[in-house]
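Lecture notes, unit on binding sites. The following record was shown on slide 14. It pairs a sequence with S-adenosylmethionine.
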Amino acid sequence: MCAVAVNMTYEPFSKEPEYVEANRAFIATLPLGGVRTLLDLACGTGVMTDLLVEACPHLRRILGLDLSLESMLIAARHFREQGTLARRGIRLQLLQGTADILPVADGCMDAVIMGNSIHMLPDERHLLREVARVLRPGGLFAFNSSFWAGTMPPGTEKVHHEWVKQAAVYLMNRDRELRRRGKPGIRRKRGTAKTAFSRPWLSIGDWQDRLDEAGFAVQAINRRTVLMDRRCFETIGAYAGLASVLFSGYPVQLASEALQETAGSALAAMGVSEVPRLWLEITAARKETV
Ligand SMILES: C[S@@+](CC[C@H](N)C(=O)[O-])C[C@H]1O[C@@H](n2cnc3c(N)ncnc32)[C@H](O)[C@@H]1O
């Protein structure tokens, strides 16, 4: 029995205190004092949107955009029930779409923030040009990511490998068990999803080059240590988006179950109770001309 039901949205992990606090700390470093219009790119279920509303005293309009309609319905319900936006007179618009084609006029945003999703876009150059287009000159672009070239402190890769190895063995055993009972085994449909992390993770230097090319001046770069314990591994394993990439073609329910069920034993096998992960945070300003 899984600790957390498999979820098509990022909601389970995004509610973990480690996740919320790391994002809150990142947002606290941003110069948001004068921001009136803000775009939360790949807003998911609205965890960062909430933190951004808290951090922007002069916010008038906030736009959240995500590919996942299911995530945005959760966000919409949350903001309706919470009532903060209405009390503060902030206009919220939630749009389903892809972050690299923005239905937004040129130069109308004071800030664009992208939480833990920039690595999911297929072409970061295209994305950055689009972000630069919608920002006013001098406007702020900030993102964080836990999928970049330096994200695993040396030695910690072994824990992630152990986790995936144990989850693969779990799936093999489930398959054997089903066949032993005369049932069809686990069917893997190849070619249905991207293979695990098919694109290389970018380094800080790569990001600096990409931002410069797109017309941004980098203002701050930070690496934040986030400790991932068993519960974090379980809730991230519950995210269908990760399970379907790590175990491409397997039924996502089972892949997620395997990741959750083996999180504790993988950490125990490596003799650790938590694993540090470095989150990259980059803040940039749009140059006057792009
Ligand atoms: C790891 S979640 C982060 C969500 C949110 N920013 C947060 O911190 O809770 C990544 C999000 O990116 C969204 N996503 C993936 N590819 C996208 C794309 N091309 N355009 C817009 N959103 C995308 C997913 O639907 C998901 O909600």
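Take-home: The longest strand covers residues 216-229.
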